[in-house]
Design a protein that fits this description.
Two copies of one chain form a homodimer. Chain A is mostly helical. Chain A has a domain of 146 residues: Tetracycline Repressor, domain 2 (Orthogonal Bundle). Helix content of chain A is 74%, strand content 0%. Chain A is built from ten helices and no strands. In chain A, helix 4 runs parallel beside helix 7 and helix 6 crosses helix 8. Chains A and B meet through helix 1, helix 6, helix 7, helix 8 and helix 9 of A and helix 1, helix 6, helix 7, helix 8 and helix 9 of B. The first copy, chain A, binds a DNA duplex (30 and 30 nucleotides) through helix 3.
DNA sequence: TTGCCTATTCAACAAGTGTTGAATATAGTG
DNA sequence: CACTATATTCAACACTTGTTGAATAGGCAA
């Protein structure tokens, strides 16, 4: 995200090409919906090379997920900690939570957009959620919820958790880019329009949080 | 839902046992994460029987999805149409949209809970969303959005669509029952607690809709 | 040159996949 | 009983899966 976009790397680093291809395919078809051979074909490398670099298929999946998770998680932590002063508003906290994803999408690197879809896949999967989300993101969510507790000192913890859950769901469906909002709105809204999605999401969620937690 | 729960059907109707087993496995592992042999084993029938009754694997998937989709869609339509009078409040409209899912969960039949997770899988999947959701549910969503337009005559259509999108995401993550809210809240909240999830969701979404669309 | 390490390809394995046709059981009808 | 249609099982097929060990290429140091 801070680095330059590494697009059009078709002639260099095969190792990263494997990661990029796996990322794109896993994001769209899920773990079981993708074969190593499909990944290798898209990356234009031999089938055995993925195994050489990353080991088993499951290890490759972890490698794909971890590559950008660290960056994303760090960004969230920075933004939340930066405004750790007790002057923070609800809108600021929500924005700090969403901003890294918005920035990831705005990068020229198309890999980031694929990664966000992969993140949505992991978030909504009953089997992957525990395994993958606890590695990096759960810690940041705890920080986010702590900030919410400061803002709503009188709210029960349960309500805050459920409110976060709703926001997390809205976020996940946005990241997934299923194309449903395009279809239902007859093309007037677009799944790929993250700017609008995030812009509207902040006041939407802020009002909802206040209603339930205040 | 209106019929009696058909639990403990282990000694009868093998055809329905296949559907039930496929439903449970597809919901948890997705389409590609499940083999016909796993389904047959769980249903305690021969591998070839699934093919005999439902044809190809993809046809079985459709059969599983369609079985309860019709009921769910009809319920939504009834509830929305019943209060078609211009006296309906925002809360009533949202409740009419969520109620069928709440009722499905409250049934004794554990198959319904599996089905809701399957629905979440389809809703969040980039590949399945278009194929499956357009068959039954898109029509009801259009009705739901029409009701929202009546309530917010001055709101732009885009905003209404995005608000629906957020709610749909929150709903999908709830249906998915990933166990994440359990983990983050240290067990204080539970993914299976649909009652609380729906109860809080109505005021949450109502306030959010008003903020953005009013 | 030789030697060595890493990267990459090739060919192949054993296991598992969806699917199918024939064989067998079951139940209902005359 | 026999006849028939449906339901179920059995065995096997052709194909794909992840994975691996041996073979090859390329770069770099001595």
């Amino acid at each position: 995200m801070t680095e330059l976009a590494t697009q059009n790397n078709k002639e260099i680093n095969k190792k990263e090409r494997i990661l990029d291809s796996a990322e794109a395919l896993f994001a769209q078809h899920g773990y079981d919906g993708v074969t190593i051979r499909q990944i290798a074909k898209l990356a234009e490398v031999d089938v055995a090379l993925a195994n050489y670099h990353f080991g088993k298929k499951l290890d490759l999946f972890h490698a794909v997920f971890d590559r950008r998770a660290q960056q994303l998680s760090d960004q969230r932590h920075k933004l939340l900690a930066a405004q750790q002063s007790s002057m923070q508003t609800l809108e600021q906290v929500i924005e700090a939570f969403l901003m890294p994803l918005k920035m990831a999408q705005q990068t020229e690197d198309p890999g980031w957009r694929n990664y966000l879809a992969l993140l949505a896949y992991v978030m909504t999967s009953p089997v992957w959620n525990k395994i993958m989300m606890s590695k990096f993101f759960d810690k940041r969510v705890v920080e986010f919820i702590a900030a919410l507790k400061d803002i709503f000192p009188n709210a029960s913890e349960d309500k805050i958790h459920w409110c976060y859950h709703y926001m997390s769901g809205a976020l996940a469906l946005t990241l997934a880019q299923t194309g449903r909002i395009d279809r239902i709105s007859n093309g007037k809204c677009q799944s790929t329009d993250f700017d609008t999605a995030y812009e509207l999401m902040v006041p939407f969620m802020a009002a909802a949080f206040r209603k339930v937690c205040d």
